[in-house]
Amino acid sequence: MNNFSDATSCPVRNVLDRLSDKWTILVILVLGETGTMRFNEIHKQIGDISEKMLTVSLRKLEADGLISREVYPVIPPRVEYRLTALGQELLPLIDTISNWANRHMQQILTNRQQYNG
Amino acid sequence: MNNFSDATSCPVRNVLDRLSDKWTILVILVLGETGTMRFNEIHKQIGDISEKMLTVSLRKLEADGLISREVYPVIPPRVEYRLTALGQELLPLIDTISNWANRHMQQILTNRQQYNG
DNA sequence: CGGTATCCTGTGCGATACTG
DNA sequence: CAGTATCGCACAGGATACCG
């Protein structure tokens, strides 16, 4: 039996708190699909994320060791992001949830509408 | 290849937007571990969630059809929550992420510390 | 190209009080 | 017991401008 009540020591909460924002999981999915990507590729792929939030998301993922960030000292600058081994390990789990979402969205939307009248 | 760029039509975003708040996934996990639970049981199990946010989270999960809410017309009131079939189907996926979190938290915390100096 | 720096706003969330 | 109602605020996140 788990104990979720202490936010700082509970692993699940420690990790989920980090994944539970508007963009992080999406960034992992995109990087997982395409492999190595540059900043603006990710940006285009997600579409409505602001540059600021993409930067913030990437930096947090880098800090946690889920993605790597390689800077090529050329002009114009070239920066490549990719999943690390740790990130690769997380990817299939997120992918599974993504598939579940695809399978059940219609049902969930119907439920939601009915509930809200 | 997925297209994540339209928030309203993309299944992944539709579903993830709903799961990506501070408490929802935790509520699913707790209900998954213990089965049928009353309001205050969930509240105690999570500890630092406010009654307001627990109510909000439960209502959203109910709206999406992931949990059911059964009210017994007795005094004092008795309300039981449990995962629906749809919720049960999502549970193992979240469980897997929870396990991943348990396995890798220490590494992630170390990464984070090193990154932030 | 790949970002910062600033400013600003909506809202997620907590705290507290009250209720059938 | 299982909630609502209300208030207030920190902060996530958007918009815009600027930069090496």
TrEMBL record, chains A, B:
Keywords on record: DNA-binding, Transcription, Transcription regulation
Gene Ontology molecular functions: DNA binding
InterPro entries membership: HTH_HxlR, WH-like_DNA-bd_sf, WH_DNA-bd_sf
Domain of life: Bacteria
Protein name: Transcriptional regulator, HxlR family
Pfam families recorded: HxlR
Domain HTH hxlR-type: 10-109
